[in-house]
Amino acid sequence: MQNSRQGVGPTYQRRYTVRVSGSSLTAAQLITRLGDDLNAASPVEVAVFDKTSRTSDPLEAGDEYVVHMPGPWNCPVRVVERTAVSFRFATLRGHLEAGEIEFRARDDREGDLVFTIESWARSGDRMAEFLYAKLGIAKEMQLHMWTHFCTRVAELSGGHVIGDVEVQTERAEPSGPGRQRRLARAVTAAFARASALAARLRDRPLHPKGLVVEATLTLHGTSRYWGVPFLDDRTELRGQVRLSRALGLPPALPDVLGLALRWRQPRSGDAEAEAIGELLLATTGHTRLGRHLLRPATRWSPAFYGSLLAYRAGDRRVLLGAVARRGRIVPAGLAPLARALEEAPALLDLVVATEFGSWERFGELRLQGPARSDGSEPMRFDPARNPVQGLLPAGLLQQVRGPAYAAAQRVARRRADGARSERHRRPERTAR
Fold first, then answer.
1. Is the pTM of this model over 0.90?
2. Which residues pair with 97 in a beta bridge?
3. Does residue 352 carry a pLDDT above 90?
4. C or N terminus of the chain, fewer CB within 10 Å?
């Protein structure tokens, strides 16, 4: 095996995605068809897959291939993972690259077939890096090979391509991953200890009191394809929202306002099963700088609620938000909010943007009263345990958030258990 640690130069994450309409094959059937004969989709003038183990059987984990390419660039690979809708190769010694490449397909809710090739790799040696980064020969060959592969997959499925093959590349310089991991562990430990200490002083360090309301999410997507069901699908979802003040200051004082959203989403790879998705938003600015800063507010509406921390959608870092529409002013106290929701539902536009790009609307969030307090049984959120399908936490602070939440919630559970035990013991002492 020739993994990325044995390569040279920067690591490239590359993704080639094609959306196919009218396919006669399901995602699983397409992957089975490719496993039977990779050359059915490969542009054989550029690359021929030659199976060197168990040559008459379909593709399975452990199989090895040599990809024959023009010039002295034959590339040996091994199948390291095979599922119903994907398979993954790892490079072997002598390959131009050091890393892995995955082929996967999925059936989306609109009836289309989405096929993706994604790789994570560095150049295999100095010569390969020169051919790729300096001369660009390997780069052009790779681009030609995989875009044509995607196009031929569409033909193989019996459907037709919607738009163009989408190509995304992200480059990460080799900058001391060991030191980065040590820094992440140190910061995580510090935040976890601080959260646990705060939880000992107050059951809920932040957002102590809140109102819970029923929510409806109406999603319709944007003008671009993100590769994330939450951002791409056209559907209606049911959920709940908790609205709260971060510090619990008196209503007359500005406070950071929180909007925590929970809903049921299809479990990845299983259209029949469901999983919980959670998203935490708070009042921030909406400008390119302001979206990265918390902003105390004096009203629930109009207001902008942002995720503050970034997520990764493919090779793009994105932020999510909700915009409470203008035309209705609701002061930032819990009592005025409850009265406003009794009178009429609150409507917010769901928006997404790259870190420094413009906001795009992808849905509507409707909050329906009556609102109820969760003071006796606080509604707790943990987006690290209940992530949005297809969105990966990006950055050091996102890594810190999960362990910090977990530490605070462990302390809160111990306090609650202790209080329950004390209540059970008191009648016994009185009886004596």
1. no
2. 123
3. yes
4. C
- Write down the architecture of domain 206-394 according to CATH: Beta Barrel (2.40)
User: What number is the average pLDDT over the span 203-209?
Assistant: 66
The reply to whether domains 4-172 and 206-394 share a CATH topology is: no
Domain ranges in the chain? Answer: 4-172, 206-394
Superfamily of domain 4-172: START domain (3.30.530.20)
The pLDDT of residue 124 is 67
Under the banding of pLDDT at 50, 70 and 90, the label for residue 422 is: low
- Angle at 116 (CA atoms; ends 111, 118), nearest 5 degrees: 160
pLDDT score for 122: 80
Closest alpha carbon to 298 in 329, 338, 332: 332
Q: Which of 99, 93, 102, 88 is nearest to 122 (CA)?
A: 99
